[in-house]
Amino acid sequence: MRPLSKLFWNIMRKHIVEQTVLLASVAKWLFLSSIIGALIGALVALFLNILSYSQESRDLLPLPYYFTLPFAFALTVFIVKKFAPDAEGHGTEKVIEAIHKHNGRIKVITIPIKLAATVLTIFAGGSVGKEGPAAQIGAAASSLFASIFSFSDRDRKKLVVCGIGAGFAAVFGTPIAGAIFGVEVLVIGVIMYDVLLPSIIAGFSSFMVARALGVDYSYFEVVNYTYIGLDWEIILDVVLAGLFFGAISVIFILILQQVHEYIKSIKLNSVLKAFLGGVVIVILTLIFSDAYLGLGFETIKNSLNTDKLIFDTIAWYDFILKMIFTALSLGSGGSGGIITPIFYIGATSGNFFGYIIDGNIPFFAALGFISLLAGTTNAPIASIIMAMELFGIELAQYAALTSIISYLIAGHRSVFSSQILFLKKSDHLDIKLGQEIDKTEVNFTHDFKFENVEKMKDILENKKKRFRDRNRRDKEQ
Known about the structure:
By secondary structure, the protein is mostly helical. It has helices at residues 2-56, 69-83, 92-102, 110-124, 131-148, 153-172, 175-184, 196-212, 232-265, 270-287, 297-304, 308-311, 318-331, 339-356, 361-377, 380-391, 396-409, 446-476, and strands at 187-188, 420-421, 429-431, 442-444.
């Protein structure tokens, strides 16, 4: 009996040790992520309240607010370059870079500089978003927290990932999507399951604190107002929509890259380039409209509105002009996020697609809203969950289809150049994995280029042979 009791004790000891360690780990991250989420929720609420106040104060100006764009861009570039170069751009890609290359270390000066630069840019009408700065502010706060309490590099990375998700959650009111986005956006093809629990807890904590501090959120019910059946005709339309949104994602990414590279190649002082970039946007605004400036939430809401008189106000070319305004704003040195412009482009292009196929306009605007996020950021899972959080569970099955198709069609591209590619999107593509996505080179594999061609040749030869044999038999008869 003694050997049997010893075996039983060894088994029990293993389970006791394992469960004790896991319970301690869960308790640790429940506590830490709750604290981090609350801190980020408060910081994001402060940022959003300052931003809201600055936008309301535009009426105090003696001239249209967008005439301040050249000066705002020039001042933004100056303070960012002088005090916090890491605050440049739309924020999230710098956090991704910090996690991959610097063990999540982000300078605390990034927080006030990013806040000031983004408020300046959006106040003047720069076509940027507010979620990138929120994610960068959250990540910098998490990095500072880790430094104060001397956490390991591994725990620091986890906290910074929590900061990304918590910032996203506090801005859009989507705690689960924000958490998943934080763990999905770092590496294409991999979800960091070890950060999933703390990221979700941080997202909920951030969202609840921000809401308690007066941040309002918008949710939509585009499906509830009209019946969307599950039949082959609608599924076909949804598949076509996914292909369309994937193509729009590619176009937007390419426009961003080309405009950025072109402005970068101009041999002028960066502050002067920023000023001139602002002048160009002012001229375009006078030619077209100021509807493409700033956050553009009113246009997004109008695209998703179920009232025909309202969604009919969206012009078919709105998404094209928004791409140009956003690329110029970020390329010229404006500070702000990229996700809100993506939502604008997605919703308005979905509106246009709905008109093309004579379909349900708000329904396809909602699918565009979600699918552009999946295609441009390589985060289809977060996009699908966001569809449920913003639009309701009824949209999930369609959003899943369009998001995944858009994600695949967009290829190995991203608005976040620091993303690491871990999984290629087709076995017939020859790609070196483990590199930043903007450094990857894509080629066809040998089997894709030649195997199908050889099969077609064999089929044609067989058909020719059967045709000759039949002719010979006919002649013999």
